[in-house]
């Protein structure tokens, strides 16, 4: 090899090393964070999460990136919450399981606590909702960024239900949440806590007769294929929280923290609009599958769960309960 060719190769090699070094430095300047949730990629939670990730990237000029892991890839709700406490998970969407980490959330799961969607929003986006998030941060080390809306929980069943009397002995899957179990017991049903992943096959084989969830949850799990009736009970107007690990949040610069909060707020508006559209689509899916939709008078159901309201309010926070009731 002549000296000229040797110098050319040496120059190209040095240039490649310099470029590689620049790329490495740039990569080190980017903080990559992990966000998990339990829903599939077609669900509004995932769409909202992707929008949140896009906004974080945009608002931090690429210094913070969020990778979204759907379908329980990072674990169950409990796994996600524990992960945020120790810093192995950075963001998550979690709902009722929060009560296992900060007990006052149990009150929010009471059937017929909120009379309609407006009542729920008044609480979540007002002073009381912010106070709950502040208390949660202090008690758990998990920061609440925003509350996202969900469609109301409705009953699906293979038994026709029009009054509380029709619930007598009905085997209904519920989440393993005290308010859900005791609420359905008070209404006359036989509640059975069960992992949601087991619900479809359990309905198909007759292990259970019914389940209750927001419509989009039910259609995403194809529940309308194995149920005869959709009963519009509107028994829980619920939420999901966009949460973050305080361990991680404190490592961000003040500018990045502000960007993350702004992204959370804007993603909330985006996701909440999708929820309204999604419920309309889910209702049509039930109809297309031949499921009969039953409208019920919710007042008799509501009266039966009042003793459970009083019991759990005294147990987990009468002040929080009364503040919600006073917003009606």
From TrEMBL:
InterPro entries from the UniProt entry: DctP_fam, TRAP_DctP, TRAP_DctP_sf
Signal peptide location: 1-27
Pfam family for this entry, one: DctP
Keywords for this protein: Signal, Transport
Family: Belongs to the bacterial solute-binding protein 7 family.
Protein name: TRAP transporter substrate-binding protein
Originating species: Salinicoccus sesuvii
């Amino acid at each position: 090899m002549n000296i000229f060719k040797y110098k050319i190769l040496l120059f190209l090699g040095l240039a490649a090393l310099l470029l590689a070094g620049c790329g490495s430095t740039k990569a080190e300047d980017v903080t990559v964070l992990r966000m998990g949730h339990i829903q599939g990629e077609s669900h509004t939670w995932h769409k909202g999460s992707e929008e949140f990730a896009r906004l974080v990237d945009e608002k931090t000029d690429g210094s913070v990136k969020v990778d979204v892991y759907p379908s329980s890839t990072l674990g169950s709700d409990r796994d996600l919450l524990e992960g945020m406490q120790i810093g192995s998970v950075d963001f998550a969407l979690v709902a009722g399981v929060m009560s296992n980490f900060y007990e006052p959330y149990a009150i929010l799961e009471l059937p017929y606590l909120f009379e309609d969607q407006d009542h729920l929003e008044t609480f979540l986006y007002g002073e009381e909702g912010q106070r709950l998030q502040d208390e949660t941060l202090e008690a758990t080390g998990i920061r609440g960024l925003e509350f996202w809306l969900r469609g109301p929980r409705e009953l699906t069943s293979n038994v026709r239900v029009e009054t509380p009397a029709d619930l007598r002995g009905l085997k209904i899957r519920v989440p393993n949440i005290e308010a859900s179990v005791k609420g359905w017991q008070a209404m006359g049903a036989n509640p059975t806590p069960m992992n949601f992943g087991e619900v479809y096959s359990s309905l198909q084989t007759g292990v259970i007769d019914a389940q209750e969830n927001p419509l989009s949850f039910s259609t995403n799990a194809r529940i309308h294929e194995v149920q005869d009736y959709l009963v519009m009970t509107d028994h829980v107007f619920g939420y999901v929280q966009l949460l973050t690990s305080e361990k991680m949040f404190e490592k961000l610069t003040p500018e990045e923290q502000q960007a993350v909060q702004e992204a959370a707020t804007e993603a909330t508006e985006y996701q909440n609009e999708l929820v309204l559209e999604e419920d309309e689509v889910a209702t049509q899916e039930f109809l297309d599958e031949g499921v009969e939709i039953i409208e019920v008078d919710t007042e008799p159901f509501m009266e039966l769960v009042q003793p459970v309201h009083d019991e759990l309010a005294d147990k987990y926070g009468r002040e929080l309960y009364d503040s919600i009731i006073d917003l009606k």
